[in-house]
Write a structure and sequence with these properties.
Layout lengths: L8 E5 L5 H13 L6 H6 L3 H11 L13 E6 L2 E10 H4 L3 H13 L3 H11 L14 E8 L8 H15 L4 E7 L3 H9 L3 E7 L1 H7 L3 E8 L1
Parallel strand pairs: 4-5
Antiparallel strand pairs: 1-2, 2-3, 3-4, 5-7, 6-7
Helix pairs in contact: 1-3, 3-5
Length: 220
Amino acid sequence: MGTQSTTEVRVVDATREHIPFIAWVMLTAFRSHLERGLWDYYIGGSDQECLRFLEAMADTPTRHWMHHANFIVAEAGGTPAAALCGYLEAECGGPAFPQGMAEANAALGRSDDDNAAGWQRAGSIALVVPEHVEGAWIIENVATKPEFRRRGLVDRLMALIMERGRERGAVTSDISVFIGNDSAQRAYEKAGYAAIAEKRHPDFEAVYQTPGVRTLRRSL
């Protein structure tokens, strides 16, 4: 058969069976248009080591913003092809994230020293973390497998995840991009988002090779 058409795509809530794919999505999303991203610097090892950590992060007892339960997945012909997540910061940000990190590190036998060394390498990202209005529905970790790109999968996922935000009572939604990832920004603008803020810092740029982060926002 030829290539799968978008009419054969099914969007589903992520399950534990999707965790290896979700780990790839998170690694890819944070690499953005760059050679290396947050998790490369934090783990400081191979792709396999990064993915192993991200699989642990996606399945922690604590539900934080990287947990698989926040994701929806587009499957093409039964194959996971694209995914993203949506969440409320009050529920899945704040203390939930460091708790999830501690649980993932413990599950993999990573020590406090390993964690500290990881953040020493990667921690300049904290200098450009976006600021969100209270109650915003935050969309994060957007990625599509290369062979399934340009088929409208992210458009379908974005429409559904925004509806989820409305169902949760959010009236505003935020999404962020690394400055220079113009293709991602165009995709989000197509979904109705507009750039409203930037955070830049030379220490971040020295590590990540991009000036900072741009936040886009739309009403739901």
